[in-house]
Amino acid sequence: MEATVPEVDYSDYTNRQLVVVPLSLLAVALGILVVATLLTGSPVQLGMEFTGGAELQVETSDSPEEIEARFDQPVAQITQVGSPTSDTYIVEFRAGDYEELDDLVAQADAAGYEILSEGERSASFAADSQTQALFGLAIAFAGMAALVALMFRTFIPSIAVVASAFSDIMIPLALMRLFDIELTLGTVAALLMLIGYSVDSDLLLNNHVLRRHGDFYTSTFRAMRTGVTMTVTSLSAMIVMTIVAWFLGIPLLPEVGIVLVFGLLADLMNTYLLNVSLLRYYKYEAIAK
Fold it and tell me: What is the model's pTM?
């Protein structure tokens, strides 16, 4: 598969015109995350892995609304498992919204539900998982930034890669908040993958522009031809995975796929607007000075 990449005439646009869109969207994303943190205490909604709680997998012909009404405690989320006609549901309760797991089991039994499985995660263990996940993201990003700095040993090309990767993470996080997608171990893994996707496309561009023969625009178009093909291929695969996982009722995979779609779309913008403008400034203005 090879995407058809139009040969953009970057010389028609100034560097400021190229960066205004990605930087504006990054500013909006950061604003959303800051406001969400001030209002709720967390930039994104946290899943049960990071808050603690209980989970029941039940089989019933009731609708999700009827299932929720059967419990005295607030239901955090109800997820249908399997095809859209499946009678199996995962019912989640957040820590602090109930007292004992046995009470939830008793209410499910009283409603006539067949309980396929039950489980509970303590709030303290969930808090430890949250700390470890955030620490892992921070370590991955810092390691990426250090590696990029060692590879190029020049400030502007290095900061172009780091800034693009940072935006590729912030924009999906803001969209997760807007679309009520929880931060879970699965979506954390998706964010980690986005760091890799972002660095891959940015390094491809930087290497073509800085280390290969040809003028700036020829090198940029060569990098776009390969990079856009890779990203569009990955984007298509993630869209198909999301649709199939949603239709089959596979838990977690739809959210992971959506986060990756958000990030890959952001990566196309950041790589070929933000990164290109910084590289062009470096090639034609910074070096000349």
Answer: 0.86
